[in-house]
Amino acid sequence: MGAGFPWKRRTTTQGQVAVEAQVQPAKTSVSLRSFILWLGPALMVSIAYMDPGNYGTDIAAGAGFKYDLLWAAWFAGGMAMLLQYLSGKLGIASGYSLPELVRMSLVKRRYVIPYWLAAEAAVAATDLAEYLGTVLGLNLLFGVPLLYASIFGALDVILLLAMMGRRFRLIEQYFAMLISILVIGILYNLVVIKPDLSQVAYHSVVPLASTNAALLIVVGIIGATVMPHALFVHSWLSKNKMDLLGRRVNGGSLGTSVTESMKPASHHPFSTVEIERTRKFHLKETVIALTIASVVNAGIILIAVPLYPNANVTVSDFVRGIGLLFGPAIAVVFVLTLLMSGLSSSALGTIAGQVIMEGLIGKHWNVWARRIVTRFINVFPTTFAILLGLNPLSLLVYSQVILSLMIPLPMIPIVYYTSKKKFMAGFVNRRITMILAIATVALIIAFNSFLLYTIFVPS
Q1: Phi and psi at residue 167, in whole multiples of 5°?
Q2: What is the domain partition of the chain in residue ranges?
Q3: Element of type H or E holding 442
Q4: Does the bond joining 228 to the residue before it have cis omega, within 30 degrees of 0?
Q5: How far apart are the C-alpha atoms of 201 and 266, rounded to whole Å?
Q6: What is the per-residue pLDDT for 405?
Q7: In CATH, what is the architecture of 27-456?
Q8: Alpha-helical regions (H) of 143-270
């Protein structure tokens, strides 16, 4: 690499690094080549905001209220963008992942273990939605009966785990491929449907929720947007990517496997200027990746508009409906995007679970064993529900309850850590960032509390 490459490791002592970290970040230039090399962390995390759980809410918004709730998709995307930026910045500036910092803060195992169990419950609940998306995609795309699809859907673990011992860049390319198929599929659907652009522009900026039913959908879109596992894993992905690129510049290789890169690492020995450059790369990538996710969610709402008025339409009925209105091709492409969403979201959940366990417990568990256990925890209730003749998608209610309860676990520590010089040195949050972050956290917690109220206290 040429001189001035952002991830060139310093040969200073830890004391010199600590002193330099107190200097305010310097203004730096950003090269396109270095930015392209950085791409990966936010792209991988963005799939959490295009997961199968979002499909149901977005379809209900479009089919039930046409363009009225389009603004909620953009608003939710903006909040997710802010929190994911803070998560990634935490890993870059502190040199630690969020789970590692939580473990160091809680210290005693009697505090760490309950936190870890709660975080793992959030990962398992997230995986349920991803798994059901894969199952439904197989059922609708290939006509596989739900019972068999629930078994085949668990086998995605084999493909992912086969890559876990390969280069980390391969995992990033796998995500990029699945996300590309998903985005192209959504754009194709939009071209076929031809939404009213004037309505799109108007309802993207004018917030409307004229009925209680509409308000509940808005709460679902915004309250369920930020995913706990995405906040946990983004800090590690950014920290890990910076470390991998630093090793590459200094004679190492980006060929480090996922399992190798998950081993405990020392604090990043990078200069303040290098950290600031990387922060800028991270900011740009987060904005781009989360904007793409917002476009996908808004796109799903628009694709559902022709089925108005039917807020209670299921994904299966929705696919049949657009197939009848616009031809089978659009239905097939849409189901393909759902399948890609399930596969890619599931892969992120695997990495997140491993990061949480190793960061909080400090122990390495075989990735194969972990993935198989997590996946089959969700296979059993799903298969049992199908055997009883129940709709397996009804299980999503229970996963939503768990996620609503667990969302404060990563949000509050991220805002806290990124506001302290003890962890961030000169990269602490600015006042406006803190105001927006606190408001975002408060709003998401309030919306999730309301969601829990509607579930347990039906009108």
Answers
A1: -65, 145
A2: 27-456
A3: helix 431-456
A4: no
A5: 48
A6: 83
A7: Up-down Bundle (1.20)
A8: 146-152, 156-164, 168-193, 197-205, 212-223, 228-249, 258-261
